[in-house]
Amino acid sequence: MTSSSISRRSALGVLGTGSALAFAGCASRVQPLSADASTSYRADYSGEVTFNSYDTSAGEYVRATRTQRAKNVPKPVKTAMMTEKSSAGLYSLFGFLGAAFTYGIMTNDFSPFKEITFVGGINGAEAFEESSVKELENMWFEDPKMTFTLKDPTPTQNGDVYTWAATTTFSTGNFVVYEGTAVDIPSEAKKDVHDGEFKARYNNGRWLLIDIPTNTDLSSSFGSAGNLSA
Question: How many angstroms separate the CA atoms of 100 and 103, rounded?
C-alpha cells in the first residue's frame, strides 16, 4: 500500500472510529496556552492525556446542532515539546494526535496531521485522500472527541522502540447528522474504547509512530515496521 492510496476506512480505522462512523453511514472548547504549557516535566504521566495548545483566532466556538456543524473550532497547534526525546515529548505528541483527530472530525480539515509521522515516513495528512475527506462533508457528530489514557507513569524502552500502554476512547455525543438527517446515537454506540499500546521511535529530531492503541495495526496499514528510518 502506498502513501497516496491509503483509504478513508484504513485511516479512520487506524484512529479507532470504525464502529462510530459505521453507525453514521447506516443512518440515513478549549483555551489557548503557550506552546509547552500543557506538558510539564514530571515522574508520572499516567492518566488521561491533556492538550491545550490551540489557535482560537477563528472566533468564538459554536457547538454543533442538529442543523449545523460546529463553527470556529479551535485548531490544535504543534508544540516544541512534541519533538523532544523525552516522556514529556511523547506525552505532548499523544495529546496533539487526539486533538488533531477531534478537530478533523469536527471540521473535515485534517491538515494538523501533517505534523505527525507514521511508520514508513508517512505524513499523517496523507492518510486522508481528497475523495475520502469528501465523504465526511455532509456528516457531523454532536460532540466528537478522541482521548488517550496512559496506564503507566512512563514508557518502557526496548532498543530504540518506546512502548506505552494506553486506552483510546472515541466519543460521539448524542446524535449524528448524516446527509441532512439527524439521528440519535444509541448509548452503546456513543463510545468506542480500545486498549493497546503506543509504540514510537525517535529519529532525526522527531517521533515516528509505529503503533497506537486501536484495533488497527499501523504496521500493516502504513508499511513495514521494519522500515522505520524515514
Answer: 5
Question: Is the separation of the CB atoms in 49 and 98 below 8 Å?
Answer: yes
- Burial state string for 168-193 with b = 16 or more CB within 10 A and e = fewer than 16: bbbbbeebbbbeeeeeebeeeebebe
Sign of the dihedral through C-alpha 122, 126, 132, 137: positive
pLDDT digits (tens, 9 = 90+) for 118-144: 877 777 777 665 545 666 788 999 999
CB atoms within 10 A of CB 18: 18
Q: Which three cell numbers stand for residue 37?
A: 504549557
Question: Pseudo-torsion of CA 170, 190, 182, 68, nearest 10°?
Answer: -40
Under 8 Å CB-to-CB from 33, ≥6 apart: which residues?
52, 53
Query: Averaged over 148-172, what is the pLDDT?
Result: 96
Q: Could you give the CA distance from residue 3 to residue 125 in angstroms, rounded to a whole number?
A: 10
Residue 157 CB coordination number (10 Å):
9
H or E segment and range at residue 101: helix 87-107
For residue 20, the model assigns a pLDDT of: 52
Indicate the pairing of strand 175-178 with strand 181-184.
Answer: antiparallel
Residues, the chain: 230
Consecutive H or E run containing 196: strand 191-203
